[in-house]
Structures
1.
Amino acid sequence: MSNNNEAISEMSKLNDGTEKIIIKIENLVKRFGKLEVLKGINLQVKRGETIVIIGPSGGGKSTLLRCINKLEEYQGGKIYLDGVDIDEYDVNQLRTRIGMVFQQFNLFPHMNVLDNLILAPTKVKKMPREEAIEKAKVLLSRVGLLDKIDAYPEQLSGGQKQRVAIARALMMDPEIMLFDEPTSALDPELVGEVLDVMKDLARSGMTMLVVTHEMGFARDVADRIVFISQGVVEEEGPPEEILRNPKKPRTREFLRRIL
Ligand code: ADP
Ligand code: MG
């Protein structure tokens, strides 16, 4: 009897474990012509985790995020979202589930903040305009920019633009947020306000993959740091382990240069 119970409890643990994995990347290979950029990436992300991806420039970090969001095709391996191969998803359907924020804000310059926010939900999700406006107001308050609802992107600072870009991505109620160096185009004094919004989001339980070299953010917020170099995951682990006691020479060398 007790054995049986143990077996059942083991099984539910297993079920738990697999249900929790929201993204699974297996042996991902990406080439641009003859250049192999991703050489067999393996990575699993649990629901609610914040993963910080670090690594040398040109190592394939952006390409990896772009593959997850179907902005790039790949030549080998698989990416699963909730256990389903992303090949099976329609690209628009996938992108309602995965939000992305880039280094260069990518706001539509000819639209004000409100219209930037409501465009995708009204077009792609067919959300009624009034509902979208209400949602936009909630999210703009959340990023501290409700007073900028009528402003145009050129009237905003870089930090404000990036906070709008985050609010815009959240309009679709994504389950996962991808950030590709969201603060590297910002003046240093504007970095904090964007990181604060991201910290809030992480604490609210969002699943996040963040490419950044803001190691303070990584230390405070990341559940895991993943070091990508030369197209593979060279090393990964909790921040305290990776930052204090990196095992691989390449990780050590990289951290020595950026810290
Ligand atoms: P990271 O984000 O880590 O700096 P990237 O993923 O941007 O690295 O780039 C990895 C490699 O792929 C680099 O050598 C880069 O030049 C190359 N690359 C990226 N995008 C393209 C593209 N569209 N066409 C050809 N090569 C590309
Ligand atoms: Mg990049």
2.
Amino acid sequence: PADGKANIGVTGLAVMGSNIARNFARNGFTVALHNRSVAKTDALLDTHGDEGSFIRTESIAEFADALATPRCALIMVQAGSATDSVIDELASAFDEGDIIIDGGNALYTDTIRREKEMAERGIRFIGAGISGGEEGALEGPSIMPGGPASSYEVVGPILEKISAHVDGQPCCTHIGEDGSGHFVKMVHNGIEYSDMQLIGEAYHLLREVGGLEPAALAEVFREWNEGDLDSYLIEITSQVLAQVDERTGSPLVDVIVDQAGQKGTGRWTVKSALDLGVPVTGIAEAVFARALSSSLPQREAGKSLPSGATNVPLDTGDDFVEDVRKALYASKIIAYAQGFDQINAAKDEYGWDIHRGDLATIWRGGCIIRAKFLNRIVDAYEENPELRSLVEAPYFLSALTDCIDSWRRVVATAVHAGIPAPGFASSLAYYDALRTSRLPAALTQGLRDYFGAHTYRRTDAEGAFHTLWSGDR
Ligand code: ATR
């Protein structure tokens, strides 16, 4: 701006915040910088101060003064109470109509609350999910901003400019009201969990049953990355498997402790899905598989459990690699179908005007789950925005049709060989449940009516029925 003020401010200059601030500056915006401890601000200016136009500030008052009005500030501090206190400080220093964007990994219910509190104080609040890690933050992340559409009109162009771009389209769009941006980011992370779990299962089967060593597997994943599975996660799987440990000369994957960590967004996704009553089995299995890997006493206790006969003839001919690829692809389709169902349910529950096709569009670049596959989802929702499930879209129906035989063979092989494949197996169970015309839920209803008089509905008449079960007499 002509008065020498900043277009945007960033407070919280740890790794993500610093990189986003640099991204803004590299795109020609003047950026006001603030961090609780000035040392981080100065470190950023020392190393990257020449990348664009920055304004150094030491206090929130100086920060507010450096910003052109209406003010626009991005918070990149730790999620939770730190975010609350920074929001409160900013709101006190800002004027009516100014905009605060929370770019942290906030829980969507916190964002809903904060948006309401800020609206009462006349401050416009945007909860923006930002995906892409350190590199994405600097080079162009995928950004999922939620809040009033009128606020998005002000900050949208700035955020879209710094986001990743695919085919000339920004990987940033207005998601919906209040917590919708952080909700969608959360489900994105849940889907990321399931993608990684499925990749892990494919690796495990190809190694244990298929007999392929990491170097050969790196090549398999590299080839897969040239087809339908083309994605960032498959690409880096190939690189992780190819990595040799300097200290031992072994494949690095064999030196890494097999206990997966988690920061909580997968767990949040599943908790929300439980509340919404949406079966996100693919994501849930992935979260539980990480928990299981870290359940050390149980793993210790189970170490000598018998496998039973695993020497059954395994169907691991030349086509096994292709079978596993298809099992992975089909299971991935199911995991995405479930995640999109969850978003659709939240849309109804919270009254958000979310367009599912837009999400696939902005996940095509910048973020961890970026994949060619997402173009197919964009097409599917373009063709029919009201899809009841991704599985009914013609492209996915034909992909599942193409994969189903391989998928069954791979799950059967895993069971025979005693290799856990909960992602593949539960996705196939979900698929089969969708196909089944009469589910055993009828019996469940009978049992519920028997012991609790919960009543049931009949196939041939309206209303609720209760039976005097003969066992009662
Ligand atoms: P990362 O994981 O990228 O390191 P983080 O832990 O999510 O980042 O957030 C760290 C940032 O939050 C830092 O900028 C930190 O400020 P300091 O450098 O002064 O420690 C900031 N932060 C954490 N708690 C804060 C609080 N209560 N008030 C203001 N800033 C806070």
